Amino acid sequence: MFFVAWHPLYAHPLPETHRFPMLKYELLPEQLLREGIVTEASFFTPEPPAAAEILRTHTADYYQRLVAGQLTRQEERATGFPWSEQLIQREVTILGGTIECARRALQHGIALNIAGGTHHAFADRGEGFCLLNDQAAAANYLLAHAPGIRKILIVDLDVHQGNGTAALFQHEPWVFTFSMHGARNYPHRKEQSDLDVPLADGTDDATYLRLLADALPRLLDEVQPDFVFYLAGVDVLATDKLGHLSLTREGCRRRDELVLRLCQQYQLPVVVCMGGGYSPRIADIVEAHANTFRLAAELYG
Hints:
Layout: E1 3-5, H1 16-22, H2 24-35, E2 43-44, H3 51-54, H4 60-68, H5 73-79, H6 85-108, E3 110-113, H7 134-145, E4 152-156, H8 163-168, E5 175-182, E6 195-199, H9 205-223, E7 227-231, H10 249-265, E8 270-273, H11 282-300
Parallel strand pairs: 1-2, 1-3, 3-8, 4-5, 4-7, 5-6, 7-8
């Protein structure tokens, strides 16, 4: 059995211009239950973590101003979201969900957050629909509280570079950041991950999977992590309006299978967060995310 973090706040209603990307947080759990991929017992409702856990990753000044609604207009525009108390509750709850997933993955091998993967958030600012960096905060939580976890690998396969995550761990030897992303996609100014694999526009299944199959086993042997965070964005799909790559849904599924089978082969606990997905048809987004859960059920169920 594996566990899944979900909270009604994940589907937080936003202005109409932001509403469509949030639909998957309502539809995906419904589809997983309908298909029997998970049961109600698989889901847990995350709680906001203590502020001290957030402050392991984010500066006190930024976090205090974020909670109080005191970001400048420029800072707020950079996040892409209009500020509200409910939005902050949502972001803190997502972060808490990824931390709790990390605790459960230590016991059960894998846990998945229906949301998460907010990899554009830096220590002192938010960007690109990311206010708090959930995987970075969960990695810092493990390093502080889990004695057996000495080295962490973050595998970021969202189509956009995890610039905030890269910057947060640039001088941290205990966290290795690996990002495969569109070379010409957002963010236009990239940070330096420990390993970046930039992809040309139009990259197809065969090329993508070959590059990943070359890089990831080598990293597992060289880095020798004790724990993996996997950002499984489905904005790599050819149908994605922001992605500019050419992966099919089957190629995206094979990507997930490669990552999860390697984690299982190396006996590494893994937390999976869903990341981005902006295909015009919501069914394309939900189905690609559902494949990740189907694989988890096949391998860990």
